[in-house]
Amino acid sequence: MGKVNRPSSWARGSGIGRGSFGTVSLAVNKLDGQVSAVKSVELGSCLEARVAALENEIRILRRLSSPWVVEYFRDDVTVEDGATSFRNLHLEYLPGGTVADLAKRFSDDVDESLVKSYTWCVVSALRYVHSLGIMHCDVKGRNVLVGPTVGAAKLADFGSAAEIDAVSPPRGSPLWMAPEVVRGEYQGPESDVWSLGCTVIEMVTGKPAWEDHGGDTLWKIGFSDDLPMMPTQLSELGWDFVGKCLRRDRSERWSCDQLLEHPFISSSAPSNPIIDTSPRCVLDWSNSEFEEEEEEEEEEEPWRSNSETRIDSGRDRIGKLATKTGAIWESDGWVMVRSVISDRAGEVSEACCCGGEKEGTSVEYPNFVRAEVEMGGTSSEYFDSMWTNSECTDSDDGVAAVDVGRNCFTAGVFFVLSALFKFTILICNLLWFTLYLLFTIYLRYPSVGSCDNLLHAAFIT
């Protein structure tokens, strides 16, 4: 039998961002009022790779439970606007932004104590994830969310994550990739540590660790001995910490256990643990529509005391939630959502490609690596030269993806041609010098006639 629809227990609010493989919106649970962030991908569209990436993230997050990793709530499939189906991942809502915006927030004068604390959180998250045999594969500033307490942060966006022992193509964001990943040789926990070093530089400067110079940047990361430039704002201990992460030989990079003992972050754990990060209900939510109504009421009745206003507004808010008719979630920007149910137990939706695995999808992550256009991170020149990017296209590939093997081959050819060009210039210079020398000798010894005599005179000279 087919699938049937039933009213969902949550309502979708306004959009709050766009991830690598889907849109992110606010969501409110109509049963208990809890506010969350929901990442959604439209099913049945051309973007099959995005659905597969979301399924991969769901499968990974179901296994994780750490105060330093964004919390997984649930996942479902819904039908909205009467026909459009969406695959949804519900996560805790962290409204503090990302650590990539840290430098902008402090006008390039970043408090290093915050950098230390955020770095401690990321290293702790990576140590936990690596201990479960998982690598994140896309550590960068925009995938580290600022927590509700001072100095706290959480690692997010596990769409590219994979098991360490799994045979899979390299993946990630180019400017944060480790050299061995760019070359297509290897990707593992050590590669996450390299990306961590680039992320620390990004926190301090507000920019990616590598400057974007198109194909030259890709070659420099993978095939040169260069390292990212250290920010002058960072202390000597910070330089040493980043240096332990950015070792070109992956066997020389420090592990997460070692990094947690480094004096740069060893005593920088957040003072308060992260508890109840997502608002438990709309009354806890600082952006709630109830606050706007309170402000309007206060403007209309300025003669009332603050205490009276607080008591009455609290009663009104509780009364609205306790009314028999319930809150009208489908109005004022909230969208009606209906869940999709199948007659077969365990089936979410045929379009979800969930298969029969206990923990998620049987669909393997496509053989692509993400090449995202980051704000202030990578320019169009970069992707025009060696990588490709597609926000939402009608192609079969769908997601912004590249074949690393082909790109590394292109970079290798570029390297060989550059070496041949330099060698040709060297030979031309030698020939020019030889001709110049022979001509000078001829002017000094005009009596020398034959070429043999001329060469003999040059040898004597």
From TrEMBL:
It holds the Pfam family Pkinase. GO terms for biological process: signal transduction. It comes from Actinidia chinensis var. chinensis (Chinese soft-hair kiwi). GO terms for molecular function: ATP binding; protein serine/threonine kinase activity. PANTHER family: CCR4-NOT TRANSCRIPTIONAL COMPLEX SUBUNIT CAF120-RELATED, F10K1.14 PROTEIN. Residues 287-311 are annotated as: Disordered. Residues 289-301 have a biased composition (Acidic residues). CDD domains: STKc_MAPKKK (cd06606). Belongs to the protein kinase superfamily. This is Mitogen-activated protein kinase kinase kinase. ATP binds at residue 39. Keywords: ATP-binding, Kinase, Membrane, Nucleotide-binding, Serine/threonine-protein kinase, Transferase, Transmembrane, Transmembrane helix. The chain crosses the membrane at residues 413-439. Residues 10-265 form the Protein kinase domain. PROSITE patterns: PROTEIN_KINASE_ATP (PS00107), PROTEIN_KINASE_DOM (PS50011), PROTEIN_KINASE_ST (PS00108).
